[in-house]
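User: Hi! Is it possible to get a structure for several chains at once, not just one? Here's what I have:
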Amino acid sequence: MKRFSFLVFLFYSLHLSAQVKFDDFFISKTLRVDYFHSGNLITDMICFEQMKQEAFWGGSKKNLVDIFDYGNYKFSVCDSSSNKEIYSRGFCSLFQEWQNTDEAKKINRSFYECVVFPFPKKTVKLEIFSKDKYMKLTKIFEMYINPNNYFIKKENPLRYASYKIFDSGDPSVKVDVVIIPDGYAKEDLEKLKKDAKRFAGYLFNHAPFKENKEKFNIWLVEAFSQESGTDIAGQHVWKNTIVNSNFYTFDSDRYLTTSDIKSVRDLAGLVPYDQIFIMVNSTKYGGGGVYNAFSMCSSDNEHAEVVFIHEFGHAFGGLGDEYYDSDVAVQDYYKKEVEPWEPNLTTLVNFDKKWKNMLDKETPIPTPNTDNYKDKVGAFEGGGYMPKGMYRPYINCEMKSLYSGFCPVCQKALKDMIDFCTK
Ligand SMILES: [Zn+2]
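Assistant: Yes, the chains can be modeled jointly so their relative placement is included. Here is the combined structure:
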């Protein structure tokens, strides 16, 4: 009994002290910390590269401490004198995905990454944690940052026109999505503007974005590339583009990403932003989305709209893939005995923490994959690349097969994230 009251008290006090006052600790600019994330199948190392001050802070000024605990990594910023956590976010990285490939068994590799947080008024401690397959956090980096350090770069950013193409108001209470074009040459300017508007429209065609349209700002940075198109290694196509996007990530022909995160963030920093979408001038099918890093997609493929929505679900909502029957080469990505962090996947190890309260009383767990449960929330076996031992919330969802729309559980997770960013 005693133990119980202590826990209640602890929860209550943690809850009360969760968020801090922005003006006590921060000014309305961004501090960006860049590093190389290096290692192999087993090791994980962060090597500091640079710090930069950026002109805007586009995130919430109220919800500074993360409440979701999504992502394979987390960074935390503490006030150095009180050791109080004043900012944190979860995130994912290409490095962690690469660790699941065969190459990671043979060589070491580095990936460029950044974390951003509001610019501190006083010295802070930055810590980066990695989450293992058992959801255990290990600290992999720690650094004290004095905001007066003259090595924090303040150089003029790249000079490109940047403006809102969809305007709902004050960035601190909106989800600000910045569109970074890649593979648009100077002569593609008109196409670039048209494509960006088309993609903004795509977002608002889908629930829960469509009914929350007034909570979004969409920004465009008119950045040009030397050449049109993108790299397609397997077809021997190489293009000189501004953020160096490429298909064939980890030798998957449709996996479109970039390792040039420095350029991506330099361009994004021209505006206040919460989310980065990289629009790649290509007709080839494909895309990619990494939680709290970026989403990207080719501009002119016939399935571009739904690929974009799916990837945005990963990058913005931390949603997991609900499919399990694809050719994606992922080995042993989840442990059946551990509840994953993704809001739309469960091993049923801790289903109470997930969407159990959204099930009708009479719906069995696990839920049979039959027509009786076609439009019902349940726990259907198969998800997260695993046909057995992992369960998804709906028979079909945008995170399982394109053109399905987000299931009620994914919609709720996305809506919760919209609310978190717009308070
Ligand atoms: Zn779903």
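The chain has eight helices and 17 strands. The helical segments are 2-16, 22-25, 94-98, 103-106, 189-203, 261-268, 304-317, 408-421.

User: Great, thank you!
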